Amino acid sequence: MAETDFDVVVIGSGPGGYVCAIRAAQLGMKVACVEKRATLGGTCLNVGCIPSKAMLQSSEKFSEARHGLAAFGVKVGNVELDLPGLIAHKDKVVADNVNGVAFLFKKNKIEWVKGAGKVRGAGTVDVALNDGGARTITTRNIIIATGSDVATLPGITIDEKQIISSTGALALQSVPASMVVIGGGYIGLEMGSVWQRLGAKVTVVEFLDRILPGMDGDVSKQMQRILAKQGMAFKLSTKVMAAKTGKAGVELTLEPAAGGTAETMTVDVVLVAVGRKPYTESLGLAEAGVALDDKGRVKTDAHFQTSVPGIYAIGDVIAGPMLAHKAEDEGVAVAEIIAGQAGHVNYDAIPGVVYTWPEAASVGKTEEQVKAEGIAYKVGKFPFTANGRARAMAATDGFVKVIADKATDRVLGVHILGADAGHLIAEAAIAMEFGASAEDIGRTCHAHPTLSESVKEAALAVDGRPIHI
User: Fold this and answer.
1) Domain boundary among 274, 298, 320
2) Are the C-beta atoms of 415 and 216 separated by less than 8 Å?
3) From CA 309, how far away is CA 173, in angstroms rounded?
4) Do residues 138 and 18 share a domain?
5) pTM, rounded to two decimals
6) Same domain, 206 and 220
7) Residues 341 and 372 in one domain
8) Do residue 262 and residue 170 come from a single domain?
9) Which of 12, 174, 224, 273 is deepest in the core (most CB within 10 A)?
10) How far is CA 229 from CA 188, 196, 225, 233, in A?
């Protein structure tokens, strides 16, 4: 092959991009990563997963200090919110993480090309440099890892002041008296929870007839009941027709999703959280011959290669769940494929987590999916009210649900609503990765007293033999 500047050029430094770059460097390749932000880490580390979890953690502690510590025999005085301090904690967490990625780039001798990348064609990337000028890079392989951007609604203009996206929700300078969250998915419920705990009256408006529409129905129903008890209001099967800003706030026009009489409501802030869209604009993909699907995602084959040989894509810009850890695994896989190894991602065992309190976590098929596919199945459920550690934590909301094939007992899906569900789901993901049966989980010794015993009990319940219920 002709001499090139690099073996691999990754466009985008989010979880998929930076992990891909590091793995390629570990495998002996000369790697560059093109990133136009002032810091590495993409949406996730800068204005997504990491800062939102920092704010969720802070708001949980604030809420617990105000309402929860007395139950443990801890008396506190007047608890006050220090919002600038909360934001400062979030900013420090972000800085520590993005600086950590920069350190890893130096450690692995990855060149960070600071600018906006554009694919000219196979083997060539043009970069409009942040400090002016341009640079053309030649490479054996190009990996598109540009992630996703905020999805919007027609007729609603996000100004990040009164009508905000998830990015604006991380930077409000005061607690609004009232907030409407448009969208009852992961992002809307998480950021709505933050501001609800800090004092806002939050109403979630969802077009569909339930929140968390992609999760198991039992999780969705109980999560709504729990969040309602916490003070969150819901308007389901409702669509937002218009949003008009003014001195009095934002006036929303709402209609039933099926059509009907419109109503208006005025709130201080509206958070638009209707999902994300792949970021494929300004990359020169059409000119380079890289094909997109009807949803604007980059088309790839089973090895992440696009319609142009030598150009690959991973993460939010391709099909599949828009999750950071999915992108990371794809980044590792494509780097290994380029190196001649057998990189692979098992899309049946990718967990998803909603970081409200309690958390909701899921891996594998929902009961609705299993029914739709006509699979004969069994279900085991175990409530946290019957778990000793949950009682000690005063965290008895929720349950573990295990779905297994009726004939083989192989685990098809696990769904958890409860404290630390995001940690507990890892056990289920490993079990599914190894093709475990519900009995395998049920016969595995779990430490006592732990929340993980609820996973064991739910697995035993598949065969109708839980111990503690």
Assistant:
1) 274
2) yes
3) 48
4) yes
5) 0.97
6) yes
7) no
8) yes
9) 12
10) 17, 12, 6, 9
18-42 pLDDT, tens digit each: 999 999 999 999 999 999 999 999 9
Catalytic residues: 448
Domain boundaries, position 407? 349-462
Q: Can you read off the two tokens belonging to residue 413? A: 């899906």
At residue 373, what are phi and psi to the nearest 5 degrees? -85, -5
Distance CA 298, CA 292 (A): 4
Based on the domain organization, do 110 and 167 belong to the same domain? no
Burial-class residue 334 by CB neighbours within 10 Å (0-12, 13-18, 19+). Answer: buried
Contact 182, 367 (CB under 8 A): no
Same domain, 15 and 126: yes
Look up residue 186 and give its two tokens. Answer: 């992961």
Clarify whether residues 181 and 107 are in a common domain: no
Our CA dihedral for 405, 409, 411, 415, rounded to 10 degrees, sits at 80
**Burial class, 118, CB count within 10 angstroms (exposed 0-12 / middle 13-18 / buried 19+):** buried
* C-alpha span between 337 and 17 (Å, rounded): 15
CB under 8 Å to 400, separation ≥6 — which residues?
Answer: 381, 382, 384, 414, 415, 416, 418, 424, 454, 455, 457, 458
Indicate which CATH number applies to the domain containing 362. Answer: 3.30.390.30
52-64 per-position pLDDT tens digit: 999 999 999 999 9
